[in-house]
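Feature request, filed as a ticket because there's no other form

It would be nice if the structure record came with a short human-readable summary line next to the tokens. Right now we just get the raw output. Example of a typical job, pasted below so the devs can see what we mean:
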Amino acid sequence: MQPAEHYATPVHGQLGGFFSRSNDLKESFSVRWGKIDFHVHHGIQANVKVILRVYRSNDIIETYIIDTDAYEEQWNYHKRSTRDFFILPNSAQLGPILCIKFSYLIHLNEHSIPSQHEYLFMDYQQIQNEHPQSRNINSDWTSINRYKAYELNAGQLQADVDWMNHHYESLKLTPKFTKGQQYHPYHPKRYLHEHIDKVIRSKHAHPDRLCTIKVSVDCIDDTDFVSHLIHAHHQGVLVQCIVDWRKMTLTNSQNYARLKYAKVELIGVFCTPKHHLIEVLPDMHTKFVIFNHEDCILGSFNITFDRWWANWESGMTFHSEGMCRLLDNIFQSQRGGVIQRYGIDPLSHFNVLYTFWSTCHVKWQIVPTAPCDFGRNSSRQTFD
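Raw output as currently delivered:
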């Protein structure tokens, strides 16, 4: 397979001046704005995702996922630029940035194609210089790209959805509705820690098996949870965390720094689309955790239990390999892969995750009478 460089070429990088940005706790941080431009030697069917790698002292590497938008579109060529992203040149926990590099992924024909190299975006002098900076991207200071994205089997996902729609009992689900009281039997803290231990036991019993914990939650600033994840990582469990970029960057908490020092995979997602109808800055807001291939939890809560107070939060746990795969489909797309599509029956009583319109296609050529997100694809027949 040709590398991503066959389809797209990075051409230019920009770094804005310093400005102040605050987090939810009203703490202020001095950040800089950035952008990377691409020439894409293909129609707009070829999408580009950027993997930003921020190299700091103490052998710390921070990873971010950035989307791109197309412009100057032609049938066999177009240009793309990243959506807004931001860097923190000097971190109280992690020290200064030494350099910033990036690789990228091409999305084409339902698969992700990684670039062969990591490219230099900005060096130390440019990052610390208070004036706006620019760089023509070339082969200078490139290195081998080791970041890969993955896709699930769309046929398996389709089989999972069809089975669930007729065998509800296979989900083995438990609804949870609780206040921020950790002694409450439906509070998720106990479930999370019990299942982290379950994955660790599975790894001990089967040392050659790939055992995983996949966390996709806006904010995971909880000391006990982070400590347990680090322990699982040290026991040989593959721990992967995806959070909103602001939560892991604009913070004085030690929890995110501990994950980075422990070399746990921690990825920040930049959710910065531009649209005239967007009134509030969006963020990466999914909230689920997958334990190995059979247990998962999703709900309305962040993993910041000391901040719940009297809030009521809802959630649901599943003991279902099929449900874990459907959530993993979303997880892998957040890591940079192509989300796999599956069809749904609009008249079914149980449509799993149908609101991810780019994921699901309606099986029949009908127009639904009720407003729903799959309407955009409702006239397209995907499956026989």
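Something like this underneath would help us a lot:
The CA atoms of residues 10 and 352 lie 38 Å apart.
Residues 4-144 form a domain with the Immunoglobulin-like fold (CATH 2.60.40).
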